[in-house]
């Protein structure tokens, strides 16, 4: 039987001051991130390591493009997961089904050989992770009323669960990859996600009924049309692959184009809908500059999995007292800082209460700090192999983390507050579309990274992010007016 907990129950503080139901979403998201980042920690080097090293032997530019396209596709597929939740099944049910698809994807990567495993595995993980991400966030939002001051702190705690998994995944898969081989690392990711699925299957009934509500049900007469469209889309993609339009070396560009089209279409559909009122429409307009700033931020931040992975493999001194740590371990540095600082940020926002900076100010500062982090690479530009000390990357990733905590959990929270009732989960998908676009751009940018001439790369990208942040900072008052009481 479903729990009687409601979205407005402020007396329930059993999970570190938050509603107890948060623990179930916290858990499945933690294991999903364990598997996601554990697999992604070794994915790029699997693609470009030589066959003799256990890899597939692609060029670094193509491998980086695939990783960026895959990462972008994860967030792009939040559209599908959000639409199914809002029109057919509700967020909680889509979350559960998505977890099953993710398990299948990781199993495919672990057991199927070569490019077949990569193709089948990445498609399934992208679809499943997209469905889980948008709906997990939406379900967290159902645990709080709009005026609950614990909301940002709750999302920060949720973000802690994400990063516990993100910390452990690359470390453990990296150990198995370096000692036993890539497929053992992928296998561990599959085991982790299976644990998450089992845990959630026992706890999902404790979630409030609101999490299972379908806000805008699709008439049953239109189900056949949906099935036809889905089959046609799959057929089109298969044909485009077979005739060579979609290729490994242009995947990131295709995902960028698809994401831009999807974002424009989504904004147009929501803004033109007769189901939203004037206040809701104004809030969606207020979300637009936050969307643009988020794209700029993620274009730099997600290079942890593209440019920074190559940098760590070739330029970073990874020797620790005679032990050379696996490349994937670098991706566990950021989650360590998140684990440490997410509680600090949550405490700061809780203590400040209504005196905390507004969301546009937090976003602006996040973009500026992210740009500054890229400028911190400049003192090490032009060095050779093993020329960048590990402590330098640790410091730079600390700055990455501070910027992230000003944008990612805050963005998840404000999106659920700005969302029109009819488009609740789909607005969360719009926020993830900004991450999709930034992630795909991060893969596309790999082709411009030249280790022999790094100054233009890091200085131009860092400067663009700083300018975007300054532009939003100067526009805070008009943006807040559009947000109509949401700050």
From TrEMBL:
Name of the protein this chain belongs to: POT family proton-dependent oligopeptide transporter
Transmembrane regions: 34-51, 63-85, 94-116, 122-144, 156-176, 182-202, 223-246, 252-272, 284-301, 329-349, 361-381, 387-407, 428-449, 455-474
Keywords, alphabetical: Cell membrane, Membrane, Transmembrane, Transmembrane helix, Transport
Record's bilayer topology term: Multi-pass membrane protein
Organism: Microbacterium phyllosphaerae
Subcellular location: Cell membrane; Membrane
UniProt entry tagged with the keyword Nucleotide-binding: no
Major subcellular location class: membrane
Domain of life: Bacteria
Homology family: Belongs to the major facilitator superfamily. Proton-dependent oligopeptide transporter (POT/PTR) (TC 2.A.17) family.
UniProt domain Major facilitator superfamily (MFS) profile: residue ranges: 1-480
InterPro entries for this protein: Dipep/tripep_permease, MFS_dom, MFS_trans_sf, MFS_Transporters, POT_fam, PTR2_symporter_CS
């Amino acid at each position: 039987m479903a729990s009687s907990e409601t979205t407005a129950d402020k007396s329930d503080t059993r999970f570190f001051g938050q509603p107890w139901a948060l623990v179930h979403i916290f858990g499945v998201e933690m294991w999903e991130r364990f598997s996601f980042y554990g697999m992604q920690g070794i994915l790029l080097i699997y693609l470009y390591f030589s066959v003799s090293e256990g890899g597939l032997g692609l060029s670094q530019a193509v491998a980086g493009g695939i990783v960026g396209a895959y990462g972008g596709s994860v967030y792009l597929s939040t559209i599908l997961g959000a639409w199914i939740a809002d029109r057919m099944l509700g967020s909680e049910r889509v979350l559960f089904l998505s977890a099953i698809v993710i398990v299948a994807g990781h199993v495919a990567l672990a057991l199927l050989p070569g490019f077949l495993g990569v193709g089948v595995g990445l498609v399934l993980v992208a679809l499943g992770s997209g469905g889980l991400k948008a709906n997990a966030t939406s379900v967290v939002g159902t645990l709080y009323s709009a005026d609950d001051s614990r909301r940002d702190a709750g999302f920060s705690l949720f973000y802690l669960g994400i990063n516990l998994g993100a910390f452990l995944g690359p470390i453990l898969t990296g150990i198995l990859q370096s000692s036993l081989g890539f497929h053992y690392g992928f296998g561990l990711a599959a085991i982790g996600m299976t644990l998450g699925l089992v845990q959630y299957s026992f706890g999902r009934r404790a979630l409030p009924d609101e999490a299972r509500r379908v806000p805008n049900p699709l008439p049953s007469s239109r189900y056949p049309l949906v099935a036809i469209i889905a089959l046609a889309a799959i057929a089109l993609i298969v044909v485009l692959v077979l005739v060579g339009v979609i290729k490994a070396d242009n995947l990131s560009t295709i995902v960028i184009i698809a994401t831009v089209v999807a974002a424009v279409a989504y904004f147009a559909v929501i803004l033109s809908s007769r189901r939203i009122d004037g206040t809701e429409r104004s809030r969606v307009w207020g979300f637009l500059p936050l969307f643009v700033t988020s794209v700029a931020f993620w274009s730099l931040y997600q290079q942890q999995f593209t440019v920074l992975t190559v940098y760590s493999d070739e330029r970073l001194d990874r020797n620790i007292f005679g032990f050379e740590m696996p490349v994937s371990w670098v991706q566990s540095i950021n989650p360590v800082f998140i684990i440490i600082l997410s509680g600090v940020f949550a405490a700061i926002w809780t203590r400040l209460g209504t005196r905390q900076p507004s969301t546009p100010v937090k976003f602006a500062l996040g973009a500026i700090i992210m740009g500054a982090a890229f400028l911190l690479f400049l003192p090490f530009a032009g060095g050779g192999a093993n020329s960048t000390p590990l402590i330098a990357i640790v410091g730079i990733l600390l700055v990455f983390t501070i910027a992230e905590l000003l944008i990612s959990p805050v963005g998840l929270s404000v999106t659920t507050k700005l969302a029109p009732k009819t488009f609740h989960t789909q607005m969360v998908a719009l926020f993830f579309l900004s991450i999709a676009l930034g992630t795909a751009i991060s893969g596309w940018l790999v082709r411009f990274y030249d280790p022999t001439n790094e100054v233009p790369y890091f200085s131009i990208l860092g400067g663009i992010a700083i300018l975007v942040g300054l532009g939003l900072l100067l526009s805070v008052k008009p943006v807040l007016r559009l947000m109509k009481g949401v700050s």
